[in-house]
Amino acid sequence: MSLGTNLQYLRKMRNAMTQEDLAEIMGVSRQTVAKWESDAVYPEIEKLIRLGEFFSCSTDQLLREDINSGNEAYSPVGIETVNAFRMARYAVISHAPENDAIDHIRKWAKDNGIMDSQIIGWDFPFVSQQQINVFHMHGYAAACILPDDFVSKCKDVEIVAQDKAEYAVITITKPFRDPFVLIPNAYKTIHSYLKVNGIKQNKDERILSCFEKVYQKDAVEYMDIFISIDNE
Predict the structure, then answer these.
(1) Residue 36's closest CA among 25, 22, 24?
(2) Cβ burial, residue 206 (10 Å; 0-12/13-18/19+)
(3) Is 111 helix (H, G, I), strand (E, B) or coil?
(4) Which 8-state DSSP code applies to residue 77?
């Protein structure tokens, strides 16, 4: 970890801000910013505090933490419009809810003749503290995106619709090689991006606040993580 690495990361997260842009805001030369980012010199205390205020982080985070949680496994964070869609969703509370929910919805899609089904998922929040603390259970919801002309004949899932919405998106390459590190850090990276760029999350309960989509391309597994935003 280093101050320089953190500054480079935060600057690029801020809509690909250049060293010249940051230098103008901080009232220094581009060469000074370059020296900060190469760890050749450290900013004065006043400038360090100003950097923390500008990038919405503490001076301790700038100096001591590895803010750059993104590495070769992650794509840059982007903004994407997700068009309106209908989905069949199913939630599970169990010891392995993710696998249980996804397996159920995949079987449902196959039974209903939906080939090449597109499955998304998200944490299901309506779990009691007793279920979590005593029984070590958690919740997860999985959904199948439905074709436009689809008519369901089964009753064991809920059919719901979502309007068009804006999302911040990041892609993880090979997410399950270290899922308990890569996936949480991906969420952390998106939240950092939103904070740095002053983007608010969408609080509309009719819109999925976040979801994950796993897929394969050229025999490589990927996961896209979406967090809804208010981009107005």
Answers:
(1) 22
(2) exposed
(3) helix
(4) P
**DSSP bridge pairs for 230:** 200
Closest by CA to 140, choosing from 153, 123, 157, 152, is: 123
The DSSP letter of residue 228 is E
Angle (nearest 5°) at CA 198 between 226 and 185: 40
pTM: 0.77
Tell which residue, 69, 76, 68, 179, has the closest CA to residue 121. 179
Q: 225, 159, 214: which is closest to 191 by C-alpha?
A: 225
d(CA 182, CA 197) in angstroms, rounded, equals 23
Q: pLDDT tens digits, residue range 169-228?
A: 999 999 988 888 788 888 988 998 898 888 999 989 889 999 999 999 999 999 999 999
Check residue 211 and report its DSSP letter.
E
Q: How far apart are the first and last CA of the chain?
A: 35
**CA 30/CA 96 separation, integer angstroms:** 52
User: Phi and psi for 201 in degrees, rounded to 5?
Assistant: -80, 150
CA atoms of 196 and 169, how far apart (whole Å): 15
Q: Do residues 140 and 211 make contact, with C-beta atoms less than 8 angstroms apart?
A: no
